[in-house]
Design goal:
Layout (H helix, E strand, L loop, with lengths): L2 H26 L5 H4 L7 H29 L1 H20 L4 H29 L4 H60 L9 H7 L3 H31 L4 H13 L1 H15 L3 H20 L5 H8 L5 H11 L4 H19 L1 H13 L3 H12 L1 H8 L5 H9 L8
Length: 409
Amino acid sequence: MTRRGAGMFALAATAVVLLALTLRIAVASLSPLLTAIQRDFDVPAAVVGLIGMAPPAAFALAGMFAPAIERRIGLERLVLAAAVIAAVMLVLRAIAVDAVGLLGATAGVFAAVGVANVLLPAVVKKYFPGRIGLLTTVYSSAMAIATFVPPLVAVPLADAIGWRGSFLVWAAIAVAAVVPWVAMSLRARAARDDVVEEPRASVLSRVVRVPQTWALVATFAVNSSVAYGLFAWLPPMLIDIAGVDAAEAGGLLALFSFMGMPVALIVPLLVGRLRRTTPFYAVALLAGVVGIVGLLFAPTAATTLWVVLVGLVPLMFPMVLVLFGLRTRSHETAVALSGIVQSVGYGIAALMPLSIGLTHELTGGWTAGMVLIGAAVLCIIPASVIVARNETIEEAWERRTGRAWADDT
């Protein structure tokens, strides 16, 4: 590799890692501080539910609109715009004076993060075509770190410098992420190579007609529903039902989030090697059901164990990311499949944090919310049967229609 090539590799890798950190710190740094924030102003349960709903809703909308915007302004410039908006909104969140300001800034953060979330795989494919697996592991690990570290240290930081200061620490990382993207955008503009093609309408129309697509949508929706429902509500839930304090609840949320680290490292390799999905569905189902039942009926007996078990449900996230590649023949089909699965899956998942908040508001307890999470986990059973068929999207379409995929595409 030439010196110039090595420099570009390092710049792009830095940009990807810092952006990946930003994608998750915005999600994981809020819920542990709700108790501290409510000492300054009231944050109703409905608003907390809307805040929890914001990430998956933003990701769903971004999956629909980001490709069209990217075609107009370019890949790097759109990611740069998203990074700038995320940094600004994180700062505004730190200076919010009421629940409306907190909600507005949070929604702005996740609108930007949603766009970046959709585009990051395209960035990796463009700049690291021979190292997609390696860079995917790197940025997935960065996202996992940024998911479990903020809950672990947010409360101690808030105790030392206030909840606003705690928020500003995370905003500083987002600001740092802007710098390499400025350079990336300038280089791409000079090279005039910052546009990535959208999948053709004919490919999209075929992908949506394959049952495996909708089984992956269900899998992704369950994974995200559990993840974002508990990102939003696990700390107050544990404070009430398990009798832990705010710092311990933040630590347990960090533990829940940390479970994404080992699965991000291990699951893609195992799925690629085994070419089977049933064992992973079985682990997610069994762990999720046992964890929820434990929290329902014996929350104080083994709180840490129940959190660890529920934290294994999101192993389906890296599994689905790998299947985007394994269950498609071409990059174009993979992009189409990823866009549909993420848009619809995140859209469904957005209902979970809001539903938990509303049921808590109506009942004053957490039983109904936990039952909702448990019911969602059970929905992966029929999806697992369909995804177990080891065939590509193209093969499934050809089997159903009797036509070759290449015809009229």
